[in-house]
Amino acid sequence: MSDDDPMNITAGSSGSIDDRKNAAIRYVFFSCAFVTVLTTLGIILVLVQGSIEFFQHVSIVEYLTETEWSPVISPHSYGVLPLVWGTLVITIGSALIAIPVGTATAIYLSEYADPQVRKTVKPTLEILAGIPTIVYGFFALSFITPLIQRFYPETGTFNAAAGAIVVGIMIIPMVSSLSEDAMSAVPDDLRNAAYGLGATKFEVSTSVVVPASLSGVIASYILALSRAIGETMAVTLAAGMHPQITVDPLEPIQTMTAYMVQIGISDVSVGSIGYQSLFAVGLTLFVMTLSMNLLSLWIKSRYREEYQ
Amino acid sequence: MNTNGGGPRTVSKPKVSDDETSSAVAGDERRSGSRVVDPVIESRDLDVYYGDDQALHGIDMDIPERQVTALIGPSGCGKSTFLRSINRMNDLIDIARVEGDLRFHGKNVYDDDVDPVALRRKIGMVFQKPNPFPKSIYDNVAYGLRVQGKDVDVDEQVHTALERAALLDEVEDQLDSSGLDLSGGQQQRLCIARAIAPDPEVILMDEPASALDPVATSKIEDLVEELAESYTVVIVTHNMQQAARISDKTAVFLTGGHLVEFDDTNKIFENPESDRVEDYITGKFG
Ligand SMILES: Nc1ncnc2c1ncn2[C@@H]1O[C@H](COP(=O)(O)OP(=O)(O)OP(=O)(O)O)[C@@H](O)[C@H]1O
Ligand SMILES: [Mg+2]
Q: Could you tell me which residue ranges the ABC transmembrane type-1 domain spans (chain A) (predicted)?
């Protein structure tokens, strides 16, 4: 085939080698994807299997309605609600901190900050997100709790408030970084339209940029919340291991994750109900975070930024 | 609806008598001779820089009230820059810097005591690319009224603005649906409705029809002529015929950011002073 053939779009003699190379590359990528999917399925399978064994001894109704959780120490009781409560307290408490602060940070970075400031602050925030969570736990124990105790001396070493605060601080970067991405993606055309109508910078931010990026902003909230639900080490250290339904944030609580740590490091024998409860709680947790992530995906696709 | 035929504005405008306004309805008559009207916007020795690059050189221009002033010229000659310096949208561009005077009713808008936000409430803007907010049609038109906190019947203003933008008939039953569901031409008329709803004095339009098909374009052109009955309109266009059709005054910018000629539109198109302008208009360059 001559080089100056204008229709030179058919594969040359080297085509078969390229084909084989392509097939090999394809195979490698496929294997990686396959292993990932397989691992996920395996984890789910293990959770479900262990849970089935657990629910052969404990009724699902008892599990979901009883208000005492004591699967290892008698008198035994298998109501998961105190653990769910503990998780909810941490999640809601941290959301109360992370959503306002994270959103305000995102608005500042996207709308107000000089490009120079944005260039330094954003990576810094992302580094914050990379600190091991156990470090946050120690931070709660050694700084946040003593601080709370200055105002409320009766506060114990482990308390829900410190857990919620530290998790809130932990997930701020997630909210601010993802929300800022969504806000920066809003076209300047829309900002100009609003400025042209005599809107102030604040009005442009709150009544144009935030609504136009709402799906991304809310998705960031949900991802951050599902991170809070799944957060383990920091809450175990900060909030304690005392499953109870209480509205007093200065009391210790136990989250689902903290319970799993407790059982994981204890010496309950494999096959005992205490051991099996690990899987039931794990499955419950998995269902909760999975539904949060699905919700976030749904919001993103349902309210896809329509301005494009 | 409005009773004075001149639109929702009720503020009396001493500079143009009613007779003049109504005679301006007949388009031909309107362009046949220059009316002597006080300028609402005066540009005096206006320089605009982007960083170290000078985009406009010593622009002098008097923009008359309630007429259509067209800005024409080849790409990059500074038409948009001039337009944006009128309502201080250039402030939003970090590297832009303005020197000289740009007077609105005799007051230099670059004086320290001028609030650009307040200025933009008097001088509305329509952009080249239709840019409705991702909100309902109603909320789009009401946006300016709401941020400006105008003490008016929002419902009525929204309907009036849509009607004047020749869009009401097409969207009356779907005011709650998204402005983005409209066609490009409808979106642009929505943007015009949004700009006129708060009842500004001046409307700046940057190639408002360049992204539209001929039918939508002619609708916008009709609209511009009508708007000039109640508003001062400054419009950038690349389309020579469009400028000739709809404007009373024409400013020709040429490359480098110089205003080469500014005069009555028919003078510019029939008998321009400058050879370069003649060349440009007859399509010999640019
Ligand atoms: N935001 C900006 N930053 C830097 N330079 C700019 C900016 N906007 C415009 N310029 C420069 O200023 C000059 C005039 O640009 P302007 O957009 O005003 O031209 P124009 O006449 O509107 O062109 P067009 O007909 O293509 O819209 C050009 O040289 C352009 O490169
Ligand atoms: Mg332009």
A: 84-296
Among candidates A161, A130, A180, which has minimal Cα distance to A249?
Answer: A161
Question: Under 8 Å CB-to-CB from A147, ≥6 apart: which residues?
Answer: none
Does A117 contact chain B (CB < 8 Å)? no
As a whole number of angstroms, the distance between CA B280 and CA B286 comes to 6
> Is B180 within 8 Å of chain A by CB?
yes
Of the ligands numbered here, which is closest to the C-alpha atom of B96?
1
Q: Could you tell me the residue range of the domain that residue B262 belongs to?
A: 38-131+199-281
User: Which residue lies with its CA nearest to atom 25 of ligand 1?
Assistant: B75
Q: How near does any CA of chain A get to the CA of B138, in Å?
A: 15
Which residues are CB-contacts of A12 (< 8 A; sequence separation ≥ 6)?
A: A1
Position B179 in a domain: no
Question: pTM of the predicted model, to two decimals?
Answer: 0.82
The domain tally of chain B equals 1
**CATH number assigned to the domain comprising residue B206:** 3.40.50.300
Ligand 1, atom 24, residue with closest C-alpha: B75
E strand spans, A73-157: 77-78
Cβ atoms B205, B123 nearer than 8 A: no
pLDDT single digits (tens) B241-265: 999 999 999 999 998 899 999 999 9
Alpha helices (H) in chain B, listed in sequence order = 18-23, 27-32, 79-86, 116-122, 137-147, 154-164, 168-171, 184-196, 214-227, 240-246, 265-270, 275-281
In this prediction the ipTM stands at: 0.85
Question: How far, in Å, CA of B228 to CA of B234, rounded?
Answer: 10
Q: How confident is the model over A23-53, as pLDDT tens digits? A: 889 999 999 999 999 999 999 999 999 999 9
In a domain, B205, yes or no: yes
Residue B87, in any domain of the structure:
yes
Does any domain span residue B76? yes
| A266-297 core/surface letters (b: 16 or more CB in 10 A; e: else) | eebeeeebbbbbbbbbbbbbbebbeebeebbe
